[in-house]
Specification:
Blueprint: H1 4-19, H2 23-28, E1 30-38, E2 46-47, H3 49-62, E3 67-70, E4 75-76, E5 82-92, E6 108-119, E7 124-131, H4 133-141, H5 152-169, H6 181-193
Parallel strand pairs: 1-7
Antiparallel strand pairs: 1-2, 3-5, 4-5, 5-6, 6-7
Length: 195
């Protein structure tokens, strides 16, 4: 068990290392087999310190002004071994995000979300990062991906979804019964003999 203040100290140390771009200090606070699932990862999850380091380095290369701040109090479990961290991120993409190779947009994003962290006696063992990925992509691309309520795009999207759902509910076509060649030959032979 940890106290609320111990949990908050761990969270603050993790955030301080991230914002200082101290990846050694950041991953040193994570378990060797840490599990991090982030909706912004091209291929989640990142498992282990090296995978987390690689993802973190790619993000900080693509978004060199990346800033992670608390937007509310940390909600700590009674035993102190897990918490939810409400955050706001601001970042400008000035370099490619590799992998997978997204070109820089020069656009700034503001992301509000939640991190769920679990701890053991020494390290953070699990991180789950949740935020509105569509809103983030809209900011990066400068495009509206969600159709406006009642728009033609929304009507078309709903009709397409209904058609796909209907097609998936239809029973698969029945396959013909397996053929038994020996039975077929006997039937033909007996019908020829009867002629």
């Amino acid at each position: 068990m940890m106290s609320r203040s111990q949990t908050c100290e761990r969270v603050n140390a993790i955030l301080a290392a991230w914002n200082a771009r101290d990846l050694d200090g950041f991953v040193a606070q994570l378990a060797p087999d840490v599990y991090w699932h982030d909706l912004g990862m091209p291929h989640p999850p990142a498992v282990g310190r090296e995978a987390v380091r690689a993802f973190s380095a790619a993000v900080l290369r693509a978004f060199p002004d990346f800033r992670y701040e608390l937007r509310g109090p940390v909600c700590v479990a009674e035993d102190g071994m897990s918490c939810v961290v409400p955050f706001v991120i601001t970042a400008t993409q000035t370099a490619p995000l590799t992998p997978p190779g997204f070109a820089p947009t020069g656009r700034t994003v503001r992301i509000e979300g939640l991190d769920y962290l679990q701890f053991n006696e020494h390290f953070a063992t699990r991180i789950e990062t949740r935020f509105d990925i569509v809103h983030t992509l809209e900011q990066l691309l400068g495009l509206s991906l969600r159709p406006a309520a009642g728009s033609l795009r929304e009507v078309v999207a709903v009709r397409l979804q209904r058609a796909v759902a209907w097609a998936r509910r239809q029973p698969a076509p029945a396959s013909p019964p397996p053929s038994n060649k020996r039975m077929d030959q006997r039937a033909r032979t007996s019908s020829k003999e009867g002629d």
